[in-house]
Design goal:
Number of strands: 0
Oligomer: single chain
Subcellular location: Periplasm
Organism: Shewanella japonica
Protein name: Cell division coordinator CpoB
Distance between the termini: 110 Å
Main location: periplasm
Shape: elongated
Function: Mediates coordination of peptidoglycan synthesis and outer membrane constriction during cell division.
């Protein structure tokens, strides 16, 4: 009997000293499981925020690129409109000069001075028409060259040299084009084609691989013709170097 009681007491003591059951959380998992799930949730949230930031950064870059393209297109359109206005003004001046000369010749047909003026204006107008109306660019080159030789002191001389330089530039004859543009720059300081001629000299230097000289010409335009269409073109060329 005592032996049975002793055995029973031993089992009770063993039960009292046994390790307690693991603590369970409200969701039924252990603290470690809960911590693991929390870490996974935080990591997922961080990854989602990182991806969202990446998409936002990409969108911002696209907006900046589109803005740059738009600004460049706006500048190019503005430049084209400016060139068009200058062309219209030149054509209007030519038409007015031609009309005035025709009337003068009709009234004073025997005047030698009037005859000279008619020949000068008609020659210039003929050379310009080869470019604007007939699109005969190769024929326009000798026409402008002849006009410059025959009328070196003409009021059209600066424009004639610029036209000649532009035609030679388009043809790729840079050495001769350079002579024509330099004539405008050095001989006609008050010409409205001087700034454009400086830009063209810079572009010729670029094509010849002389970036330093090109920058010198572009910077002259920025300094001497600030806020002009020529300056905007010079700045664009500088930015591309």
């Amino acid at each position: 009997m005592k032996h049975a009681v002793l055995v029973a007491a031993m089992f009770v003591a063993a039960g009292a000293n046994a390790a307690p059951a693991p603590v369970q959380d409200i969701a039924g998992g252990s603290n470690d499981d809960r911590l693991s799930r929390l870490e996974r949730i935080i990591k997922a949230k961080q990854q989602s925020e990182f991806e969202a930031q990446q998409r936002l950064d990409a969108l911002q870059r696209e907006v900046l690129e589109l803005r740059g393209i738009t600004e460049q297109q706006d500048y190019q359109i503005s430049q084209m409109l400016q060139r068009q206005r200058q062309l219209y003004e030149e054509i209007a001046n030519l038409s007015a000069s031609a009309a005035s000369t025709t009337v003068s010749v009709a009234d004073t047909a025997t005047s030698a001075g009037t005859q000279s003026t008619l020949g000068e204006t008609a020659s210039y107008e003929q050379a310009v028409n080869l470019v604007l109306k007939e699109r005969k660019y190769d024929e326009a080159i000798p026409a402008f060259s002849d006009f410059i030789k025959q009328y070196p002191d003409s009021t059209y001389a600066a424009n004639a040299n610029y036209w000649l330089g532009q035609l030679l530039f388009n043809k790729g004859t840079f050495a001769e084009a350079k002579v024509a543009f330099n004539t405008v720059v050095n001989k006609y300081p008050n010409s409205n084609k001087r700034g454009d001629s400086l830009v063209k000299l810079g572009m010729i230097a670029e094509k010849e691989g002389d970036s330093a000289t090109a920058k010198t010409f572009y910077n002259r335009v920025l300094k001497e013709y600030a806020n002009s269409a020529s300056a905007r073109l010079a700045q664009q060329q500088l930015s591309a170097l």
